[in-house]
Design brief:
The protein is of the alpha+beta class and 639 residues long. It folds into three domains: 2-116, no CATH class; 127-248 and 262-301 and 322-525, no CATH class; 578-639, no CATH class. It is 36% helix and 15% strand. The chain has 13 helices and 22 strands. The strands form seven sheets. Strands 5, 6, 7, 8, 12, 13, 15 and 16 form an eight-stranded antiparallel β-sheet that branches. The chain starts with a strand and ends in a 50-residue tail after the last helix. Residues 616-639 are annotated as: Disordered.
Amino acid sequence: MITISLAQGAILISFITLFVRWVGGRLWNILAFILHQYRWTAQARDGLYYQQQVLLRNSESASHTLWTALKLAWRWRTETNGVLGRCLLLALPAAVNVAGFAAAGLLASKLLDTNDEVLVRSGTCGWLADGELAADRIYADDEKNKQLDSLWVAGLWTMKKSVEYTSACYEGQSTGYSSLCSTYVQPQMLSSVNTSYTCPFDQQTCSGPAVHIDSGLIDSSAHLGINSPPEQRVSLRKVATCCPFDMDKYQNGWERYQFPSDPNASEMLRNSSWKYYRLSDSSAPYDQVSAPRDVLFWSGTSGYELSSVPQFDGNQNLVATSPLKAELKAPHADHLVLLLGNLAKYTEAVTDPWFRASSQNDSRGYDSLYESAGAWYPDSVLTGLDCTEQYQFCANGRCTDLSGLYTQDPAPLNLGANQRAVYDVVWKSAWAANWFFITYFLRGDFLLAARLLHPTSISAPVAPDQWIQEIENLHNISMAVLQRRVVEYSRPPDVYIRPGVGTRRFIVPPATAEEQKLCDNIKVREPNYRSFSLASLVFILLCGLAIAAIELSLPPLVFRIRHWKGSTEKSQAWVGAHVFQLHKAVLESRGVGPWQPTEHEIPVLLHEPVMMGQGITGSDGPVNVGDDKSRVPSPVRAY
């Protein structure tokens, strides 16, 4: 592949189109030579035959031959027999050549111009350092604080950009920003959605049918842009399943704040009431999900509060939470409980199980929440969706089992070194696209329901299947993050943190030569550049030059072979029918000469004549002042 600007690409395409047309002319000359030699006969023929032979010998192009053959047919239509058929024998091959190479010129440009995919070049490559840093603390070491800043700022930037991309480019949510969708090699990675899936958890857990989303196989090159041959590619499949469940059965009503001895707690906080949702078997207060009775303790006082409880299969220590209750888990999967704190007040009743608001009297028992006459209030303080995420990698005709990301074992795939580098980049990108990280960085900012909120906490009613729309949107955001993270490996964003400090400062370069090679092999779409197939370009040029070489060498080679065989009539006919030989015959008839004896198609005078009067077209012929004794008669050529 070669990548050039749009202007340079236009020049290259124009050149190739003209070159192919020029090659078509060379091929026609070869065909005209073959037709001329095939048609030649020593027997006497009519004038149409000789004119056709002259036309074949002196054809300027296939289009010229086509047009002249038609004019010959018209002129000779009443003078001899079979005029139309004889002329069509010349016109049809010429027409095929004209049409064929006109199409070939367009096809050649299409063959060359693959698309607007280009390879990323940035000078910086790798992943942000993600060591043992706690997001909820400030370190004494300022360098650690800067590193923590970079993780948070870059992560939030990536998530927000992915939400923006999802809103603009995924089906059903396009806002018309088509240029934004010209970023990745695959603008959308749409998945199959089953809204009547069997509950994957304990049958008593799900409040209704589950939603099952399957991405299908995502190719590392065709979908994610990792430029590699087929034998080095890896495919990823992601499957997610969610269902609503009753959160209220895991709480015992409003309880006193469980950390009254906390020295950092205010008097108001120590005297407050909370609901504690015991989603794990642990009785420790920190292992319980909590919601305050006084909405002033919410991080936001209007709209939606979204949080999550994750559990990663094979890596329980990634997030400090106790294992979920067995009834909330499914085997061989990563888990995420999505918790919605709903502070909205709806203008109509809402039947969606995650957003349900079925009463105009707020029965939740909140403090500091102003009621609005005629509003519909959510039924519960917290509502939950129980979700699983599973992954599968495929390569070399083999696939791993569906499981959590940390339990994926690439050993059965028999990956080579280059293929393992591709696998690692895809795995790390899928890790960043986990639903937990999306909810952790964005909270409820990505919820589609938030678009219906008024400037206050009042909202238009959401759809009866709003939770399904939210899950589909979350999955699409995950796909957009997956695409973005692959590109960010090769071109990490340098997001501003503080003066002199950007996020690229903390990029850890690739550890292996194979991973380093991928830095220059990530494809994106760039409307201002075009990629062309170098192999196709070389092929077109070599084929064209080969045809031109055949055109130049074919007549001399054929003539030499005939000379060895002692048969030169057809060769003489080819030379004698040249326009300059015909011109020489006219000049000789008017006394112009003598001419040098030669077998060449271009004759040359032996002496320079003085042209008098009106030349060969007038009544007065030229006067030769050369020595008459030096005149050498030239052989007469048969046509």
